[in-house]
Structure formats: C-alpha cells, structure tokens
Write a structure and sequence with these properties.
This protein is an alpha/beta fold. The chain has helices at 3-20, 48-54, 72-80, 93-104, 129-136, 175-194, and strands at residues 24-26, 37-41, 60-65, 84-86, 108-111, 141-147, 156-159. Keywords: Acyltransferase, Lipid biosynthesis, Lipid metabolism, Membrane, Phospholipid biosynthesis, Phospholipid metabolism, Transferase, Transmembrane, Transmembrane helix.
C-alpha cells in the first residue's frame, strides 16, 4: 500500500462522494479504533470499495478478483490502495495468507461475503470463507450496508455494531455453524439496508 496514493485517493473519493453522491454515513462509532476488524458489506456497485474505504476512519484492505490485476495500470492502482488479488472459487491460499497477515497486523479487511455484485434490493447468499477468515484472524465483524450508489441520489452507508466471535476462536466451528454465522451477518446487513 502506497500511503500517499491511498490518502490522495481517499480525499478525492470523499470530495466526489459528498458532491455527486451526497454520501451519508451512520455508525462510524461502531468501528473499533484499533485491533483487527473485518468489514462485511453488501456489494451493489464497483464504487462500493472506494466509497466504503473513503468514509471509514481507518485504512482498509480489500480482496479483489484476480482478473482486475491483469491490467498493469489497474493492478498497480489497486495494489497502491491496499487491495490484493484473490482467485475466486479456488480456495486461494495466498489470498488467505494476505488476509490473515493484515488481521495479524491489526488492520482492517473489507470483504463482500456474497462474492459478487447483486442488484440493489437483493442480497445474495454469503460464502463461509469470509467467516473462516474472521475466525482464523480472531477479528470482530462489522456489518455494513451500502445503498443508492448513483449520482444525483443520496448514497447511504450504515455500519452496524461489531459481531464478536470469541466463543469460536478456540475450536473451529463446523461448516453448518459457519453458515449460521454468515446468515446472521447477512441478516444484520439487511437490517442496515432498511434504515433511512
């Protein structure tokens, strides 16, 4: 991550977000000020990562599909902004190591548990991989709901209260329990999307 590029991009997105998207943010106080954190959000637009990152009080790193890094310029920019590639659907061990390293260094990891974009108003099913990362990295999950990402409207970003998984750190839960946790996170995100 290039700090200069990151802060310059953040400032630019804040200005554009305030002017063209009239971004309104609620629940920033729910984001722990230190320690590892995973922000889990719905995904409706290519603008979700920069908007969430710009209005988050801490630096954030994202997993981004590997194909985005195939273009050298896009790959450089994404890397400068703290993103790293993930081969979707493969159980990418390198991406997992990168994610866990960020959490071990008490950083913030942004994930879209649905794995891809869904039209506004629809939520996809959460993949359990993001829950596994939270458990392995011993990080609380802060659910986030982002809606109305279009110019001229009012984009809203709502951050929910952290979900702590301390009871599961000692003994990794089975797939069924991970699925239940993922469903709980998605239910929280859905609730955040209902807020005006």
């Amino acid at each position: 991550m290039n700090p200069f590029t990151y802060w310059l991009a953040k400032l630019l997105v804040i200005v554009i977000g305030r002017i063209f998207f009239r971004v309104k943010v609620r629940g920033r106080e729910n984001i722990p000020q230190e320690g590892p954190v995973i922000i889990m959000s719905n995904h409706i637009s290519l603008l979700d990562p920069p908007l969430l990152g710009a209005f988050l009080p801490r630096k954030i790193h994202y997993m981004a599909k590997k194909e985005l890094f195939d273009n050298k310029l896009a790959g450089w920019l994404l890397g400068s902004l703290g993103a790293f590639p993930v081969k979707r659907g493969t159980g990418d061990r390198k991406a997992l190591r990168n994610a866990l390293k960020i959490l071990k260094n008490e950083g913030v990891l942004g994930v879209f548990p649905e794995g891809t974009r869904y039209p506004e108003g629809e939520l996809g099913e959460a993949h359990t991989g993001s829950i596994m990362i939270a458990l392995m990295g011993q990080a609380p999950i802060v659910p986030a709901g982002i809606k109305n990402v279009k110019t001229g409207g009012r984009t809203t970003i709502n951050f929910g209260k952290p979900i702590y998984l301390n009871d599961f750190y000692e003994e990794k839960p089975d797939k069924e329990t991970q699925k239940e946790i993922a469903e709980q996170v998605m239910a929280e995100i859905e609730e955040l999307l209902q807020m005006d």
